[in-house]
Design brief:
By secondary structure, this protein is mainly α. The protein is built from 28 helices and 13 strands. It has three domains: 234 residues, no CATH class; 156 residues, Rossmann fold, CATH 3.40.50; 126 residues, AF0625-like (Rossmann fold, 3-Layer(aba) Sandwich), CATH 3.40.50.10700. Helix 5 crosses helix 6. 45% of the residues are buried.
Length: 732
C-alpha cells in the first residue's frame, strides 16, 4: 500500500532519474531560448542609433501604466478584458511556474495565511486563464473578427499559429491543475489532510473527477502532469520568438523605450545635428538595417491584434496601407534574412520588395494607429523615414512635384507670390471690420497671428483667417502678421519626407518671428500649430485659436448670441493635429456648449478616435488609390449621428469635409463651418447707434482708423467689429 506520492525528482522516466532528466530539460530549454533570442537581437545590433535611455523614472511610469496596468486594452472591451485576465493570470502564476520548474513546489511553503491566500488566487487564476484560452480559440475559429483577417496579398492567415499557441497555454494550465488535483486526490484517499483547492476552480473539479481513481494511476498522473508542464513551459518559451507571441518577451522593453514625446518627429539621424546633415550619406530608410533598433523592436512587439489597421482611415477607405502589415511584413523579413542557422543575407531595397510606393504615400500621419496600439508601437516615424528614403532616391509622386517646387521657389505649395500673403486682409468689407498689422520692423505687437499657406491663398479658407482676426481684435489682442515675410510652416513638407526643404522654411520663419519681437503665437491651422510647437525651436509659446477662444469665454470677454436656427444639430470633428497629436479636445467643445441654444452630438468616432478627413501629409495634392474618400466616410458618420452642421477647427479638414458633403449628395442637408467662423458669427458685440450711422451694428474698436495700402510698411487694414459677420462673409 502506497503511503506517499513519489516526487518527480525521485521518479524514473525512461530509465532516467527525474532529477537528471529535468536538469537536462532545463539546461537545454534555457540554452535554446538564449540562442534564439540572441539570433533575434542580431538585426537590432545592426540597426541605426536611437536615443531612448533618458528619463528612466518617466519610462518606468509608462511601464506601470501601459504594460503592467494594461491601460489601452479595454478600448476594445471584450478582447481587452480577456487579455487583462490572461496577463494577470500569467503574472500571478509566475511564482507557481518557477516553483514547479525548480522542483520546490512541495518543499518551500509560504507563511500559512499568505500561502492559503496565494493558493486560492493561483487556483482561480489557472482556471480563468484556461477558460480564456477556450473562449479566444472559439472566437478565432467561429466568429473570426475582421481585424484578424489576412488579405491574400499579405500571405497566409495567422489563425493556425494563434490556435496552436492558445493550445500550448491551455495545456500548461491543465497540467498545473492536474498536478495539484492528483496530489490532493491521492492525499484524500490515503486519509491525509489534502492540499486546499479553491472551490469550483479547475484543480478542484479535476480532484472531484479523480477522487475514485486508483493510487497508482494518481501517481502516474502526478508525474506525467509535472513532465507535461515542464516540457510545455520550455517549448512555449522557445517557440514564442518565432511568431506573434514574441511580444510576451519584448513588450515590456518596447513600452519602456517608447517615445516620451510622441508628437515630436524623429530626426533624420539620431545624434546628427542639422548643420551636419550634409555629411549623411543617405536620408531615410531604404534597407531593413536603416531602421533604428527601437523600430525593429517594434516589429517584434507587434501582437498582430489588428487594432491599428482597424482604426486606420487609409485602410478603412481601401488605400493600399494597413499599419499592422507594416510591422508584420518587416518582422517576417527579419526572420527570413536573419535565420536561426547560417549567416544573414544582404537586404534588398524595401520599396518595391517589401512595401509599395503607394502603400507608404497613403498614410496621412493622422496617428490613429499609434493612439490605439496597447504596446506603443510607432508608425509615423517609420512612414516618414521610408518617405525620406524615396525622396532621396528621387521617387516623388508626379502630382506632388509641382507643389514641392512651388514651396522651394515661392514658400507656399500654390506658387503664389509672397507679397500676396496679406491680400486676404485687404478685402474692402474686412477692412471696415478689423485691424491687422504687418510686422515689418516698424510696427510692434504682442502676438503673432501665424497664417500659413492654405488660409492665406485659398479663397474659401480666407474666411477662417478673417474670422480669427476679428476674434483677436474683439478680445483686445495686440496682434499682427508677418505678411510676405511668412513662409509655409513646412509641416506637411517634413511629414512628406523633404527634410532639407522643411529646414529652409523653418529657418526663414524662425528668423522672421524673432525679428517681429512678439511674445506669443496664435494660429488657426493645427498643422502650423503642431509644426511651431514641436518642429521649431526658440520661438514664443504657441496657441491654437480654439484655446484662445475657450480662455476668453471662461474669462468673460467673449459672450454669445443664441443660435438662430434651433433645428440645427452640430457635431465637432476633431482635427488630427489638434486632437490626437496635441490633446486639445475639450476647448472646442466647451466653446460650442457655451453658445446658447446650440444642440451638439458626438460622432461615434471622436476625440482620440476621430476619423481623419484625408488632408494630412500633402494629401490635398496627392491622388491616392482608394475605394471611397476619407472625407465622405467622415460626413456619413456625422449624418449617422444626426448632425446637420459639422464644426471643425482646421482649414485642411474644411476643404475635405465641404467637398465630401457635395460628393456624398448631402448638399442642402448638411453644412460645414470652422469653429472660428462660428464664434465670429455668434459673438455678442456691443452696438453703437447714431443718427448718421450707415450701419447701426458697427462700433469703432480703435479710435483713429488709418488705412494704408501697399507693402513695405506696417499696414493698418481696418478696425471695426461687426455683429453680423455672416453677412460680410457672404458678400466676400
Amino acid at each position: 500500500m502506497m503511503v506517499g506520492l513519489q516526487s518527480p525528482e525521485q521518479a524514473t522516466y525512461w530509465l532516467i532519474q527525474g532529477r537528471v532528466l529535468f536538469l537536462i530539460i532545463h539546461l537545454l530549454g534555457v540554452a535554446c531560448f538564449a540562442y534564439i533570442v540572441a539570433k533575434r537581437l542580431t538585426p537590432l545590433l545592426r540597426g541605426e542609433r536611437d536615443l531612448r535611455f533618458d528619463q528612466p523614472l518617466a519610462r518606468l511610469g509608462r511601464v506601470a501604466k501601459f504594460w503592467l496596468g494594461q491601460w489601452k486594452h479595454p478600448r476594445y472591451r471584450f478582447a481587452g478584458i480577456i487579455h487583462i485576465f490572461i496577463f494577470a493570470g500569467f503574472i500571478l502564476l509566475a511564482t507557481r511556474a518557477f516553483a514547479l520548474i525548480l522542483g520546490i513546489a512541495d518543499t518551500v511553503a509560504l507563511p500559512a495565511i499568505v500561502g492559503h491566500i496565494y493558493d486560492i488566487i493561483k487556483d482561480y487564476a489557472t482556471t480563468i486563464v484556461f477558460l480564456c484560452m477556450v473562449v479566444v480559440a472559439i472566437r478565432r475559429l467561429v466568429f473570426q473578427p475582421a481585424r484578424y483577417a489576412v488579405p491574400p496579398k499579405y500571405g497566409r492567415a495567422h489563425t493556425a499559429d494563434a490556435i496552436f499557441l492558445l493550445g500550448l497555454i491551455a495545456i500548461l494550465m491543465a497540467a498545473d491543475s492536474l498536478f495539484a488535483a492528483s496530489k490532493a486526490a491521492f492525499q484524500a484517499q490515503q486519509g491525509q489532510t489534502a492540499d486546499f483547492l479553491a472551490v469550483l476552480s479547475l484543480p478542484w473539479l479535476l480532484k472531484l473527477a479523480l477522487i475514485s481513481t486508483s493510487l497508482s494511476t494518481l501517481q502516474n498522473l502526478y508525474l506525467g502532469a509535472f513532465l507535461a508542464h515542464d516540457l510545455t513551459f520550455f517549448f512555449l518559451l522557445c517557440y514564442r520568438p518565432f511568431g506573434i507571441q514574441f511580444h510576451v518577451e519584448t513588450s515590456l522593453f518596447n513600452v519602456y523605450f517608447a517615445k516620451l514625446d510622441r508628437e515630436i518627429l524623429k530626426p533624420v539621424r539620431w545624434g546628427v545635428s542639422d548643420e551636419h546633415l550634409d555629411q549623411v550619406k543617405s536620408f531615410g530608410v531604404k534597407t531593413f538595417e536603416d531602421f533604428t533598433w527601437k523600430h525593429m523592436l517594434d516589429f517584434y512587439s507587434c501582437a498582430d491584434c489588428g487594432r491599428c489597421s482597424d482604426n486606420c482611415p487609409a485602410n478603412a477607405v481601401g488605400r493600399p496601407l494597413s499599419p499592422r502589415f507594416i510591422s508584420i511584413k518587416a518582422r517576417d523579413y527579419a526572420f527570413q534574412h536573419y535565420p536561426m542557422f547560417g549567416s544573414s543575407t544582404n537586404g534588398k531595397p524595401l520599396i518595391g520588395n517589401l512595401y509599395s510606393e503607394d502603400e507608404i504615400w497613403s498614410c496621412t500621419t493622422c496617428g490613429a494607429c499609434e493612439a490605439e496600439c496597447p504596446l506603443l508601437v510607432e508608425y509615423i516615424d517609420k512612414i516618414v523615414d521610408l518617405r525620406r528614403g524615396m525622396i532621396d532616391d528621387g521617387k516623388v509622386p508626379q502630382t506632388l512635384q509641382k507643389p514641392l517646387k512651388a514651396l522651394e521657389s515661392r514658400g507656399n505649395p500654390y506658387g503664389k507670390m509672397e507679397k500676396k500673403k496679406a491680400d486676404w486682409a485687404k478685402v474692402k468689407e474686412f477692412q471696415q471690420t478689423c485691424e491687422v498689422k504687418i510686422l515689418d520692423g516698424k510696427r510692434e505687437a504682442d502676438t503673432l497671428y501665424f497664417v500659413d499657406s492654405i488660409t492665406a491663398y485659398d479663397d474659401r479658407m480666407q474666411s477662417i483667417e478673417r474670422a480669427t482676426a476679428r476674434i483677436l481684435n474683439h478680445v483686445g489682442e495686440n496682434f499682427g502678421i508677418l505678411g510676405g515675410a511668412e513662409r509655409d510652416s513646412g509641416h506637411e513638407v517634413r511629414r512628406f519626407g523633404e527634410e532639407t526643404l522643411f529646414m529652409a522654411l523653418r529657418d526663414h520663419n524662425v528668423d522672421a518671428i524673432k525679428a517681429s519681437g512678439v511674445q506669443r503665437i496664435v494660429t488657426a491651422d493645427p498643422h502650423a500649430y503642431n509644426a511651431l510647437k514641436h518642429d521649431y525651436k526658440d520661438v514664443p509659446p504657441v496657441e491654437h485659436i480654439s484655446e484662445v477662444i475657450a480662455e476668453e469665454v471662461k474669462g468673460g470677454k467673449i459672450k454669445f448670441n443664441p443660435v438662430e436656427n434651433k433645428d440645427s444639430v452640430y457635431t465637432y470633428h476633431d482635427p488630427c493635429y489638434l486632437g490626437r497629436h496635441n490633446q486639445v479636445y475639450d476647448d472646442p467643445r466647451d466653446v460650442l456648449d457655451a453658445i446658447p441654444g446650440l444642440k451638439r452630438v458626438e460622432m461615434k468616432r471622436s476625440r482620440d478616435r476621430s476619423f481623419c478627413c484625408g488632408g494630412g501629409g500633402l494629401m490635398l495634392f496627392y491622388e491616392p488609390k482608394e475605394e471611397q474618400r476619407m472625407g465622405v466616410t467622415r460626413v456619413k458618420m456625422a449624418a449617422e449621428a444626426g448632425a446637420t452642421v459639422i464644426v471643425t477647427a482646421c482649414p485642411f479638414c474644411m476643404v475635405n469635409i465641404e467637398d465630401a458633403i457635395k460628393v456624398a449628395g448631402l448638399e442642402g442637408k448638411m453644412t460645414a463651418i470652422d469653429l472660428a467662423e462660428l464664434v465670429d458669427q455668434q459673438i455678442a458685440r456691443e452696438v453703437e447707434v447714431g443718427p448718421n450711422s450707415r450701419s447701426k451694428n458697427l462700433i469703432s474698436c480703435h479710435p483713429d482708423p488709418e488705412l494704408v495700402e501697399g507693402e513695405g510698411s506696417a499696414v493698418l487694414l481696418g478696425l471695426v467689429n461687426t455683429a453680423d459677420s455672416s453677412s460680410l462673409r457672404s458678400s466676400e
